[in-house]
Each structure stands twice: as C-alpha cells, then as structure tokens.
Specification:
Number of helices: 6
Largest sheet: none
CATH architecture: Orthogonal Bundle
Order of helices and strands: HHHHHH
Strand content: under 5%
CATH class: Mainly Alpha
Radius of gyration: 14 Å
Structural class: mainly alpha
C-alpha cells in the first residue's frame, strides 16, 4: 500500500503522534521539566487552532511543495461533520491537513522533510 492509498484520517492519526512527539521533545530541550509545565506550553502548539495557523503560514510562505499541498487538501476536504467542541469545523480541517501531511511524509520515509516542517513551526520561522 502506498501513502496515496491510505485514508486521509489514518494519515492524520499517524501525523498526530509525530507532531506531538516533536513538540514534547522541543519543550523538554527548552528546559521544561514538570509535566504540568510541559502540558501548559504544549497547548500553544498542539491545539487545532494553532496547528491551523501554522499550516496557513506555511501555505502563505509557499513553504509546501505541490505534492504536499495535495495531501493537505485531500485531508482538509475529507467528508466529516464531527469536530472538537473548542473549535470550528474549518479550523479542525486545517489542523487535520497538517497532521495528514506529517503522516504522509512519515509513511513515505521522508523524515528530513518532517524535520524541516517541524523546525518551521517550532522555531517560529515566518516568511
């Protein structure tokens, strides 16, 4: 099975784990040592609202390749009516698009590109 054949929500499921792992390692490397402190700071990266904002920044900066944009759009357009209570459906779909992209890249073994994307997000690189 190729990554293009995998359901977008399954890719997002995989991407969610990857994203959270990067965020947790980043925060620990910054010296946060207590779980409650880590959780408080992780929310600034892991919430659907912030994930959607990061994805929009990458799109606005033309940071993503055409193939990556296709993955994001496929996930964003996936038919779903459910979403968390704390955000609207559009925000949720953008966050899902980011997670699906990370899952897609991981499934394809493109770990260097995952590093580039996560550095963009975690280091606050703007255009």
């Amino acid at each position: 099975m190729t990554a293009k054949e995998v359901n977008s929500l399954v890719l997002a499921y995989l991407g969610d784990v990857i994203y959270e792992g990067y965020v947790r390692r980043f925060l620990i490397s910054k010296g946060y040592c207590h779980v409650d402190e880590l959780q408080k700071h992780a929310v600034t990266y892991v919430s659907a609202k912030h994930q959607a904002e990061f994805l929009k920044q990458m799109i606005d900066c033309n940071f993503l390749l055409e193939e990556e944009l296709d993955v994001v759009k496929r996930a964003r357009n996936y038919k779903t009516t459910s979403h968390p209570k704390n955000c609207d459906i559009i925000t949720y779909k953008y966050a899902t698009g980011l997670e699906a992209l990370l899952g897609y890249l991981d499934f394809n073994g493109n770990f260097d590109r995952i590093d580039e994307i996560m550095n963009f997000i975690l280091e606050g690189k703007l255009c």
